[in-house]
Amino acid sequence: MSRKLHINANILKMILMVILISSCMKKGYKISLDKEESSPSVVQYTEEWESLQRHPDPEWFRDAKFGIYTHWGPYS
């Protein structure tokens, strides 16, 4: 009886793993390594104020001030 339950548990684990892995796959996704179709070039930042001033702040950064407050705020 115990061996049968152990085998059933292993089968169940195997089925769940297959479902998990198959759900992570994206159907119809085409992998391409062509330069023309790749994402835009990576923006290079240097440790200078001029480099930071040339690039605008992202939209999400303007609304993220509360996170900085709670991370560096009075409770720390």
Automatic annotation (TrEMBL):
Species of origin: marine metagenome
UniProt cross-references to Pfam families, sorted A to Z: Alpha_L_fucos
GO BP field: carbohydrate metabolic process
Gene3D superfamilies in alphabetical order: Glycosidases
PROSITE patterns the record matches: PROKAR_LIPOPROTEIN
A GO molecular function held by the record: alpha-L-fucosidase activity
Span of domain Glycoside hydrolase family 29 N-terminal: 39-76
Protein's UniProt name: Glycoside hydrolase family 29 N-terminal domain-containing protein
